[in-house]
Amino acid sequence: MNIGLRRPGVLRLACPNFSAAELDVLRSLLGLLQPYLKQSWEIADAATADVVLINLDHPLGFSQTTGTAVVGCAQRPRLHPAGTLHRPLRVPELLALLTDAGARALPQKLPEPADTGESSIEWRYGLRSWPLDFLDWPRPAWRVLAIITRARHSANEIAVRARLSLSEVEGHLALLQRIDLIDRYGEPRAVSKPPSSENWRGLARRVGQLLGFR
After folding, report:
1. How far is CA 149 from CA 105, 126, 136, in A?
2. Strand pairing report for 69-74 and 51-55
3. Is the overall model pTM greater than 0.85, yes or no?
4. CATH superfamily of this structure's domain 10-105
5. Separation in Å, CA 66 to CA 27, 50, 103, 121
6. How deeply is 7 buried, as exposed, middle or buried, from its count of CB atoms within 10 A (0-12, 13-18, 19+)?
7. Where do the structural domains in the chain lie, given as residue ranges?
8. Which of 62, 107, 124, 127 has the most other CB atoms within 10 Å of its CB?
9. pLDDT tens-digit profile of 13-59?
């Protein structure tokens, strides 16, 4: 268990009453989930953790006096308060927990630029959290989720990267917006400047010379 200095960009998860075997499984799950997380996670001491995961089935309780977020897990989560995860840990629930905690640790998104007309703004999308039921989503949607997990992209960029039609991408983005799992960022659209009159005159002279005119 890592109790040393915090590495930059790494968040910490503590499991104070997990068995050694459960911690080994958790480390493996963190490795599998890393490509889908914005930040890296490591298992650490509860005193320095960003999230504390408690085994509610353990005969000995655990008291947490810091302001760290505490989440329970149990074999029968319905017998415990809402938000309790299954034990053994399920990948979709762990992914949702870590992405939500990671989103809270990120700096606030940049303010949207002043409205200068929809045509002058390009919208980019960043995933806030994976849906808990993402395993039930169609596989193409997984590609969209993965693409906007670590970086912001426009709908056109997502379509190219995911090899999907723009309408498919917009449908997935609309669903994510309805369940409040993505952030939308407005950026000024790059507008190409028309050639100046001087450039046109130079082009006309070159064409005239090619045609034999002086």
Report:
1. 15, 6, 18
2. parallel
3. no
4. Response regulator (3.40.50.2300)
5. 24, 10, 20, 43
6. exposed
7. 10-105, 118-188
8. 127
9. 999 899 999 999 999 999 888 888 878 899 998 888 888 999 999 88
- Spatial separation of the C-alpha atoms in residues 11 and 60, rounded to whole Å: 26
CA distance 204 to 214: 11
- ∠ CA 17-19-21, nearest 5°, is 150
Tokens 């659209």: give the residue.
189
Q: Report the candidate in 60, 77, 47, 49 with the shortest Cα–Cα distance to residue 18.
A: 60
Is residue 15 within 8 Å of residue 22, measured between CB atoms? yes
CATH number of 118-188: 1.10.10
Cβ atoms of 77 and 86 within 8 Å: the answer is yes
- The answer to whether domain 10-105 and domain 118-188 are alike in fold is no
CA distance 148 to 189: 19
pLDDT, tens digit, 9 for 90 and up, residues 164-192: 888 888 888 988 888 888 888 887 766 55
Cβ-contact 183, 109 below 8 angstroms: yes
